[in-house]
Amino acid sequence: MIMDTLRSIPSASEALNLLMVFMLTFGQSVYPMPVPTDIPMCTASEPAQYSLTFTGKWTQAAFPKQYPVYRPPAQWSNLVGVTHSSDYHMWQRNGFASNGVREFTEKGEAWTLMKEIEQAGEQIQSVYGIFSAAAVVGGTGQSNTVVEVFARHSYLSFIVRLVPSPDWFVGADSIDLCDGDHWKDNVSLELFPYDAGTDSGFTFSSPNFETIPQDKITQITSSLPSHPANSFFYPRLKHLPAIAKVTLTKVKKTNQIISLPVEPTQSNLLPTGNDIEDNLINTPLDCEVSQWSPWGLCKGKCGDSGVQHRTRYVLMHPANDGTACPLLEEERTCAPDNCL
Prior knowledge:
The chain is α+β, with helices and mostly antiparallel strands. Helices cover 15% and strands 27% of the residues. The strands form five sheets. Strands 2, 3, 4, 6, 7, 11 and 12 form a seven-stranded antiparallel sheet that branches. A hairpin with a 4-residue loop joins strand 6 (155-163) and strand 7. Helix 4 (99-107) runs antiparallel to helix 5 (111-123).
């Protein structure tokens, strides 16, 4: 009955609103299979709930190169996540992105991704549920939700798209929230950008340019892709600063029974405390200039030395005490042209 309803949903935005319905469905209908024996088994006797907070740290000070300020400004998509066992992967570094991950990272459309997760739950029974958190309408901000995990599905994975971008995202692959017979109290991860390998654009606002053949998912660094046009290319840096952060905090139980809310708790707040301090990173951006133009005509009187000029222009103005721009015009002596 639920599947018939879902097939009639035409839009991705409406599909996102049904994420929690999927989660409850999986929790009721999927019976877990044993996971590989070479991976430590979680033996926690009771399920656990976690408060998940996604914090965007995409500031113009930390990432000044081509920082998107309009049409659209820097922001984050909805967070889409899943709780699962060790034999499932939503995405993997150095693996190929699925069609669902491709559509989500390129367009922000989550419908195919959710169908893939659902099919994994039906076929290999490794998925417990899907969860979501609201989009962050700015480079910085926070979004929150509540997640429930069980011993046989103690792993958590998620993905969030950078907007705008060709196919760039942040996320986590298989965070294990269990430690033997008990649940971890806190897990915190700094997040760095990844390239899904499906679009070959170099800049945040690049037009669609399909990658053929498809590349593997790779982490974007300050030197890779090694191209001056790349929006994350900062050759003076050894490492990019973290562009986002996720924190998972175990919800403490009281004498009252805690039940998972039907709708996730979501908010869109500015970072506070240490998160604000983290955003005070100032990444130096050196000036970038074009190649020199050809030398111009040699101007001067016949019999005397002439002068000719060449110019170049600024591709990227410096920021945060980066190297200043060099001279944009040069001249040299020459023999005047067309003298008789």
